[in-house]
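Sat 14:20. Reprocessing the chain from the morning session after the first attempt stalled halfway. Input below, unchanged.
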Amino acid sequence: MKHLQCGHAAYIVLFAAIVGGMRLLSAEPSNDGPSQSQYIQISGIYPHLAVFNQPADPADRPNHGECGIGAIAVWADRLWYLTYPQHKTQGSNDKLYELDAAMNVRIHPESVGGTHAGRLIHRESEQLILGPYFIDRNRNVRPADLQELRGRMTAIMRHLEDPAHKVYFYDMEGALYEVDVGSLAVRRLFAKPVPGWHGKGGYTAQRRVVIANNGEAGPTSGYKNLLVGGPATGEEAGVLAEWDGKTWRIIERKQFCDVTGPGGIEGSPDDTSPLWAVGWDRRSVILKLLDHGTWFTFRLPKGSHTFDPIHGWFTEWPRIREIAPGRWMMCMHGQMFNFPPHFSAANRQGIRPMCTHLRIIPDFCHWQGRVVLGADDASMMNNPLCGQAQSNLWFGSVEELYRFGPATGWGGPWVNDAVTADTPSEPFLFAGYSQRVVHLAHDADQIVTFTFEFDREGNGTWTAGPSVSVPPRSYGWFVFDPKEGAEWIRVKGSADCRATVYFHYFTPRIENESEQAIFQGLADVDEQADSWGGLIRPAAHNRSLQFLAERVAATGKRSEEGYFEVDITPQGRPIVANKTEDRSQEVKQIAVIQSDFTVDEGSAIVQDGEGRRWRLPKGDPAFEKYLGQMRAVREVATERFLAHILGTFYEVPRDPQNRPDWSRMKPVASHRKRIMDFCSWRGLLVLAGVRTDTGDDGHVFVTPEKPALWFGALDDLWKLGRPRGEGGPWVNTSVGPDDVSDPFLMTGYERKCLKLSHTASESVRFTVEVDFDHRGFHPMLAIDVPPGQTVTYEFPRGFHAHWIRFRVNRPCRATAWLSYSVYDDGVAQVPSPVN
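Finished this time. Tokens:
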């Protein structure tokens, strides 16, 4: 592969075409573009800033199936960032970018590429080190020699012995290098000192280097150079380890990502500042704190299951970093948290949930008064619907982050763990959620009383809270008082046993009363108006969006309108153009709509790769008119699925075979829009479903006499409306005592009402069972339903679980019907950070 070397007079050439009187842009812009006010910005995304890395050599394109923005930093009045493919250790077609305040971007000719995400501001030499690039105050760029610095550089750290002249580089495969910041001389110190794979964070603090990896999917032969530890046993995966310059030590054999401290990308300000590391296991998110040489452990809820796999590949680079002067954020497992920079053993106060998100965020920072989020948007890996990988930046305010998804999550300190009587668990985050329920289960042959304790001030002082007694080998649940304002919670049991203590937290998202106006150009599902549907797909042969357009009538009748491609003007405005080369058949073959679910009288039904059935609530009945015509499942953010079923969007993880893992899905938003297809292009969410009479509105950009599409950001989807729906697994269904219903989705819905009825001539007992931790169902309550009556049960406000199912005690034709709606409590406000 050819690389442009430092000092060459290389320039970026733009290829443009004139279509319909407008100049179209088919590559990234040069540095002499329009001022900021002339660039189009759509939901915080500038289309002209989209990044691509497809090489000219077709044989090398599968090696560039991903184009994430892996490291972002502010330096010399510019925003700097780089892209990465999935696995390139000696360079790639990826670039180093420099952005000025007017949103003009420069692609550096010194770019050498590779899969890198480390960054460090080296104070003494006044250089930004971004991946393999050393950048001085005058914005001169020197790349390290990737033949010597071989690997995927995931973290850059201050040196223990000679911090003024040297730094450490940490490779994703496990190697640790030393690099001279002046000469760029490289020396490998260790091939792979600790176990685990898929290296992530690294940081130097308190006279030690701490590194993390988050996977367990490498070859056993790779462990031949270990200096401590060995192959994983039990639930071990990944590692958090430290090195004091002499000896390596494993802190915890679990999956960890970022390692940092209050010095951020400049490194620890002194030898006493705390260090933070964030990871996860099957129970919850893990926050490790190193304070004056001692390690402490805290736990927080997960906001998504899409990051969970043991190989660690689906996380990118979760970070803890500043998002405004003095204001920090932790982004981990699908949630954003306000993270206080004072967090230490003495002051544990202030971690608060901000939101959940769909966007995959490898890095973020603040610049020019705005938050900047990186992304890994559209990838080709196990995703034929994407022609080439691409991503983009997002610019917005802290307040806008709070208006992403609801602050919601789940997890706990114990999941079927052996516990000792009267021994408290690790602290679990309690503050910041308006609805909190705990699920409890154990295997003891006696009653076990679980006693909760609160750290109300965040100073490590614990006071008594409520107690819950659970019968022998049984299950219980408890909804906490929403007024309880403790920072942390922990629990202890009254007997030795295997126990599960698992929380579900929920806070409705913060809405703006006018936010749904951005979707006004989309047709309603039952509207008596035509709309533009069809198939959309990021192209492989160029950087356009392929659009095989259809006119969709209110009756459901569709008529093909032809093949088009969407490009952008130099200002970033999307524009639809006819193409002389008709690629209709290519789009039809690759992007065909598949039947990913079925429908019966009570619900939508999906089936996983193991043949298990999962049931989902229905939306507006008008959606059923378009069965088999609306796309149901595709990847929109890398390595997870977005599903659209009967008017509700869902986030769905990948299973180990890269199929939808329906068991761990969650709803995103419900709506009444006639959305026929959706995808990611240039970092934008694109929806097909615009009314044919719609004009320009900032999300729809009309090209005269051409079909139109809707453009926005992926996390705009939350604004469509909070999840709603109704249905059930049984509708006058013949069942008996040996039958159990299919699971019906429960997570992510606010107000939940159950109606039970039957046709038997005597009373029937319905047993309601819930699955709260993806490990099986537990009986929550039993309801006796007299003959000829319908019994209604409204679940307590704050009760949440992932799935619900039903049993009966005698033969009958039974109906179990659930209605999911929202509580109307007014518009919540963005909270202030806790200092």
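The chain has a mean pLDDT of 94.
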